[in-house]
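Notebook entry, structure prediction.
Reason for the run: the old model in the group folder had no record of what sequence produced it. Starting over properly, with the input documented here first.
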Amino acid sequence: MKGQMLSPDFRERLMLAVTRVNDCRHCIRFHKKLALEEGLQENEIQAFLSGEYENCPDEQLPAILYAEQWAQKGGSADEDQEKELTSIYGEETAAAIGLTLRTIRLGNLAGNSFDAFLFKISGGRRGV
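New structure, fully documented this time:
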């Protein structure tokens, strides 16, 4: 998704917020690495993974909070939340945010499903 409407650091903050809710160890490890490469500091990443966003840039915070709520609702938002996101960021950026959220959710579902499969076939020795 490089070169899209969202800056790389914004995209990684969104990814971390959603993957924290979905608790995918594979995505957490991968996006933690990417976030560091995009200039986020270790303490900010750890804060995000704890659900604390006080170091988040003010202009990104509404989208981060939306992403967290969206993930908590299983990948959905009500119409009012979507309208508010669009009113803050505009249609194109709101669409890019939505694509980012759907992308990480898909990755989280795949990673967690893989872990469940590993756990089952290994008799509980692998996966989580």
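Summary: The domain at 8-121 is CATH 1.20.1290.10 (AhpD-like).
The old model has been moved to the deprecated folder.
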